[in-house]
Write a structure and sequence with these properties.
- The chain has 13 helices and no strands.
- By secondary structure, the chain is mostly helical.
- Helix 3 runs antiparallel to helix 4.
- The protein starts with 8 loop residues before the first helix and ends with a helix.
- 16% of the residues are buried.
């Protein structure tokens, strides 16, 4: 068996240098690429580092700016805190001033209401006195009208009862049948001057003269006329009559004078009683004067009958409706005044309670020191922040 023939050496050694060159070229290409990529990466890394440096510098600047803004914000917060403290102090002062203003306003309103009530009561009392003195209800009606107008203008709910009472009193005053006191006083004055002309019961001459003359008879014969004259002359010498009250017939002229003065005093008392509005006293004086005129003076005399008729006429006029008054309105005004006084007392008690509670709220803290406002508040009041 024979061995194969070996390959020719020249054919295998020829491609080896060519392959080594190709590999070397590839290696150089790879190296160039690696260097290029490394350069690019290094350039990118430098750019990134530069960017990072710039960002870091910007961040630092922003941090510094933020720190400055934080310090500024802290200062502004302290300023705002100080201003808030000043505002709280101003608000407290404003509330205190408002409370004082409200108290002053309420005091002024109460003083106005009290003054209004006092003025209305004084006006009504003066109108009542004027109505009693004059015997005319017009002043009282006018005063009640004014009371209603002033109460409506005041618009005070506490005076509503007084307004209703004034309306009722005005209706009673308008519907009252009041006698004319002026005419009654004039009649009493005329009667007072007529007392001296009234003959006493024992004054026969005056009584006979005061009698009404008999009616004129038809012409009589001469002898009848002579008989009548003789009989009348005898009647003047001797007079026979029935004496019901011997004491009246036994009065002396001095006693008759004092009786007339007493009757005048009774009439004067009745006049004063009418002026003061006391009708019962006037009625009593007039009744006593009528009794004295009927018992101690000549009842058949014309002057006595006229005086008695005038006295009875005055008494009948006084028996009418009484003089209206504003007592209901005055009572309502008095109630309003007392209610206002009670309201003032309650307001003062409420203020005292509020002051006590405000002092109780200012309690000390756990360390025994009273609660105080921050120092910034005090600095803010002085303008130091």
């Amino acid at each position: 068996m024979t061995a194969p023939a070996p390959a020719p050496v020249s054919s295998l050694a020829a491609p080896a240098p060519r392959l080594a060159g190709v590999q070397q070229m590839l290696l150089w290409a790879v190296a160039v690429l690696a260097l290029t990529s490394s350069a690019l990466l290094w350039q990118k890394l430098a750019h990134t580092q530069e960017q990072l440096a710039r960002q870091s510098a910007a961040s630092g600047a922003k941090a510094d700016e933020a720190q400055a803004q934080a310090r500024q914000a802290q200062g502004m917060a302290q300023t705002a805190k100080a201003r808030l403290a000043v505002a709280e102090g101003s608000l407290d002062e404003l509330l205190s001033w408002q409370r004082q203003t409200d108290e002053l306003l309420q005091t002024a309103v109460r003083a106005r209401d009290d003054s209004l009530v006092t003025d209305l009561a004084a006006m009504l009392e003066a109108a009542q006195i004027q109505a009693r003195l004059s015997g005319d209800v017009t002043p009282l009606q006018t005063a009640l009208h004014l009371v209603q107008e002033r109460i409506s203008q005041a618009a005070n709910p506490r005076l509503a009862a007084a307004a209703r009472a004034a309306r009722q009193d005005l209706e009673r005053a308008q519907s009252a049948d009041v006698p004319d006191i002026a005419s009654l006083l004039a009649q009493l004055d005329a009667l007072w001057g007529q007392v001296d002309a009234i003959p006493a019961a024992n004054d026969a001459a005056d009584a006979s003269d005061a009698q009404e003359p008999p009616p004129e008879a038809a012409p009589a014969p001469w002898w009848q006329r002579a008989w009548r004259e003789a009989w009348s002359g005898a009647g003047r010498l001797v007079r026979v009559s029935r004496i019901d009250r011997p004491d009246a017939s036994m009065m002396t002229p001095q006693q008759a004078f004092f009786v007339r003065q007493h009757v005048k005093l009774r009439l004067q008392g009745a006049r004063l009683a009418l002026l003061s509005g006391r009708r019962d006293a006037a009625q009593a004086d007039l009744a006593r004067a009528e009794q004295m005129l009927g018992e101690l003076f000549a009842p058949q005399a014309r002057a006595t009958r006229d005086a008695l008729a005038r006295l009875r006429q005055v008494q009948a006029a006084l028996q009418g409706a009484p003089m209206p008054s504003a007592s209901a309105t005055l009572a309502a005004l008095a109630d309003a005044a007392s209610a206002s006084s009670e309201a003032i007392s309650a307001a003062n008690a409420a203020d005292a309670d509020a002051n006590g509670s405000a002092e109780a709220n200012a309690t000390p803290d756990t360390q025994g020191q009273p609660h105080t406002r921050p120092a910034a508040h005090e600095d803010a009041r002085t303008g130091e922040f």
